[in-house]
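Q: Hi! First time doing this. I have a protein sequence and I read that you can turn it into a structure. Is that right? Here it is:
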Amino acid sequence: MKLTSKIIRMELEITKPLLENRGLDIHRKGQDRIGELMTRANRKRLIFEDVAFSRCSGCMISKRTRSRHVILYLHGGGYVAGNIEYAKGYGSVLSSKYDISVLCVGYRLAPEAPFPAALEDAFEAYRYLIDNGYDEKHIILCGESAGGGLCYALCHKLKETGIPLPLGIIAISPWMDLTQSGTSYELNEKRDPSMSKQRLDFFASQYVQDNDPRNIYISPLYGDMSDFPRSIIFVGQDEILLDDSRRLDNRLREAGVRSEINIAKGMWHAYILYGLRENRDDERKIRSFIWEIVNE
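A: Yes, that's right. Below is the predicted 3D structure, encoded as structure tokens:
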């Protein structure tokens, strides 16, 4: 049975102050536990094949046979949390719900491996797909929060290196601007039960370190998005990252890229991952998006 937003919101509101000023171990353990629970719910229906990258781990998730198209899933966690077990959590949901193979990447985390480690690992995973028979017309990127921003940073990198860009992007509450210049960081601070500007400031400091936060590979919002793949964006009306999604949608449209933004009333950061009863329409939109781009 699907959970309701009211129940989850109450739990998040209780948990939010407990996470402030806590160490990385607490964030990492909590996030990895969520991934394990999501994986457990879908494990019997899927095949999990470990993939060894040069500096991180990955996993290909599929049903009995790999599908012709594949999602490259880049998980969230502020670039400081989320291992391959966490990634397999929502990766297994994507594969099960939308009947498509999913390559999850347990990219290296800050502060042990700050920028550009996550981008390097995402780039290697994309090249892995190309080298193993998937051309760009077979690849869809998906990511939430930091992983959503990483999808667009990866597109900037692919564009720079002359490698063909993927077919489409599914962005869930993407963190596009690590300078946190959007007004929603202040306006929605008390409305968002799951995330705070203080916590994001800490995550950004661990990942960015001595680099310029406006670097397009850190904050992809500031780069040229012409020729980027078609995107569908999901964001909560109450989340502090709301402006990142709004500005992303505007930048894509200004660059002539097809983009659809869905702002969910009363929802918070990365709400889709909770599998809420109220999410059924969003799930339908993701399914339609995948079907449309693979059949264009």
